[in-house]
Design goal:
Layout (H helix, E strand, L loop, with lengths): L31 E8 L9 E8 L5 E7 L4 H14 L5 E4 L15 H6 L6 H8 L3 E4 L7 H20 L5 H19 L19 H4 L2 E6 L5 E4 L2 E5 L13 E6 L5 E4 L5 E6 L52
Parallel strand pairs: 1-4, 4-5
Antiparallel strand pairs: 1-2, 2-3, 6-9, 7-8, 8-11, 9-10, 10-11
């Protein structure tokens, strides 16, 4: 009908290239492909957004998706939180070589660091390592073609549905994603070759909010406090904890919800709270005003006035000048 009306197809169908396709993983949860797509998802109703998503390689199921203004660490954390909470911990992640996943310092190790086995990591790399997830870096977009083809599908279907439901803000788009992913998976997901799942359950001591978060290191003061972004924090009361050694290094974890935690060398976590600042002394209303301070003016006979700073020194008579001089 569109061609009969004179409308050209939106995409040109190219001749397929001859290449060897990679087979799907045999079990669900063996590999997730994760990437982002920046597109005019809202068309002319809003700004450009970036969609973060992860797809299971064995089933083609979208395990998590989240919109964000740009490609960011928080968007990937939201995707991982959705997928792990719903299905479990996967074995591996297949990602690109973005600095969110791969530290740029990994190619600048010294010989001593390589012999010591030191591997610089990123915030996301440390989080997935704690969960036991292996990161695999793709060298080209074609290597993770399953999620690249997903973007082509979503840029067509999802964009139309967002328009039909009159979605115009980032919050509305994220709320709409939940129902859309359920319908998408029910229609397009396939069964894996093996019925056994490779997902691992989340351990009882694992808290995703404290794992998928920003991490830094600080030194404890003698008053059991730390400094974080210009504010002093202390361990919140009501928590069983031992006395931490002053000047010891602790790991600080800032969650997406705004909570701040520290962990000691044994892995015990303690929630922090801001220290109240001392209130300044209020002045009495009937107090006499303080006299204004006048600038000090040295007297005329002050020794400072007899100093020759900045003044030319008087010339002293030389030995050749005197009575014998003509």
């Amino acid at each position: 009908m569109l061609r009969a009306a004179g409308f050209a197809p939106a995409r040109k169908h190219r001749a397929p290239r001859s290449h060897r396709s990679r087979r799907r993983m045999p079990q669900a949860g063996l590999l997730w492909q994760m990437d982002t797509s920046t597109f005019d998802w809202l068309e002319d109703r809003g700004p450009r957004f970036t969609l973060h998503a992860a797809i299971d390689d064995a089933t083609g199921r979208i395990v998590g998706a989240a919109f964000a203004p740009t490609e960011c660490l928080e968007g990937y954390w939201a995707v991982l939180h959705q997928g792990i909470s719903t299905y479990g911990i996967p074995v591996g992640l297949y990602v690109d070589r973005h600095t969110i996943f791969r530290s740029p310092k990994s190619q600048k190790l010294t010989l001593e660091e390589e012999l010591a086995g030191l591997k610089p990591s990123t915030q996301l790399g440390r989080a997935v390592a704690e969960l036991g997830i292996c990161l695999t870096f793709a060298r080209s977009p074609q290597a993770k073609g399953r999620i690249e083809r997903l973007w082509e599908t979503l840029q067509d279907r999802l964009t139309h549905e967002l328009r039909l439901h009159r979605v115009s803000t980032l919050e509305e788009a994220n709320d709409f994603l939940r129902a859309f992913i359920e319908r998408f998976n029910a229609r397009f997901a396939v069964e894996p070759d093996s019925p056994e799942s490779a997902y691992r359950p989340l351990a009882s001591h694992h808290d995703l909010h404290r794992i998928l978060c920003h991490r830094a290191w600080r030194k404890l003061s003698h008053g059991q406090t730390i400094s974080w972004k210009g504010q002093t924090y202390r361990i919140a009361p009501g928590q069983p904890h031992c006395h931490l050694e002053p000047r010891s290094t602790v790991e600080v974890r800032a969650t997406a919800g705004g909570e701040l935690w520290i962990s000691d060398s044994e892995g015990q976590f303690y929630r922090l709270e801001p220290c109240p600042k001392p209130r300044p002394d209020t002045k009495r209303e009937d107090a006499a005003p303080a006299p204004s301070r006048q600038p000090y003016k040295p007297p005329v006979d002050h020794p400072w006035r007899r100093m020759s700073l900045g003044r030319p020194k008087p010339k002293t008579p030389t030995a050749s000048t005197g009575a014998n001089s003509p």
